[in-house]
Design a protein that fits this description.
single chain, 242 residues, alpha/beta, Rossmann fold, globular, binds deoxyuridine-5'-triphosphate, binds magnesium ion
């Protein structure tokens, strides 16, 4: 189908503007609808940079990023935004109500859609407990919500747009292990036909991924399932043990 949500990186090399050396080298992988692809690697390995190329925050120097077989630089940005939701590593809340913040990508969403998204994102109870619910005010930068609440609101915001592709950049790290597990189980149910790419710090977040890409210094050094990597990848073993 034209709107399936197949993501393909083909021999992608990328350097930040003005930088001498690339932060990503020869990255190739495919993520298909129904799959969860996880990216793991030490700080500075290039995980955020890798995600940023799909919504075209930057364009690669070499190679191609394709969405449903079309190079993303041939799609218009509104089209990419409709199909791809990125939950950034430092998710941003702006001054306004929780409702305003959740409708950021889809202004016509109903309250019911917001509550449905909050339920999946494990944010329903803390919003319900607020006196004004969806009309509760968030201060500039979201300083009156905790880090974990902020992450859950930003995950709910992504869910509201019902994209074909989800990019989660370290979106579960501020959650306790139990909330993380509940959230991912709920996500799995509601996004079962979407393409999901997860950057994670915690191994428990990604053990069930269909494929894990181990990124080191801008290169995919190993790939496979958790079980396969435990057998074959010294880099992965180091991360597991750390
Ligand atoms: N970098 C820049 N300019 C930027 C962002 C990053 O030069 O605007 C560099 C810093 C680092 C490399 O790119 O050497 C990769 O950064 P990235 O943020 O992609 O790394 P990460 O894997 O996401 O690290 P972390 O786990 O700390 O989020
Ligand atoms: Mg990062």
């Amino acid at each position: 189908a034209a709107l399936a949500g197949v993501v393909e990186y083909r021999n992608v090399t990328f350097a930040y503007p003005g930088a001498e050396s690339p932060v990503l080298s020869n990255i190739s992988f495919t993520a298909r609808p129904g799959q969860t692809i996880a990216i793991i690697g030490s700080t500075g390995a290039g995980k955020t940079s890798l995600l940023s190329l799909l919504p075209r925050l930057y364009d690669p120097a070499e190679g191609q990023v394709l969405l449903d077989g079309v190079p993303v630089d041939r799609l218009d940005r509104a089209e990419i935004t409709r199909r791809v939701a990125l939950v950034p590593q430092r998710p941003y809340l702006f001054s306004g109500t929780i409702g305003h913040n959740l409708r950021f990508g889809k202004t016509e969403a109903t309250d019911q859609e917001l509550w449905d998204a909050l339920l999946v994102a494990q944010g329903e109870s803390f919003v319900r407990e607020k006196k004004n619910g969806l009309d509760s005010r968030i201060s500039q930068g979201g300083t009156n919500v905790s880090g974990g609440q902020r992450q859950r609101l930003c995950i709910a915001r992504a869910l509201v747009t019902k994209p074909r592709v989800y990019l989660f950049d370290d979106s579960f790290s501020a959650l306790d292990v139990a909330t993380d597990a509940r959230l991912r189980a709920a996500l799995k149910r509601t996004t079962s036909d979407a393409t999901v790419i997860i950057v994670a710090q915690r191994i428990s977040t990604i053990t069930e991924a269909d494929q894990i890409l181990v990124l080191d210094n801008g290169r995919i050094v190993d790939r496979g399932t958790h079980e396969e990597l435990l057998e074959t990848s010294p880099t992965y073993q180091e991360i597991v043990e750390s």
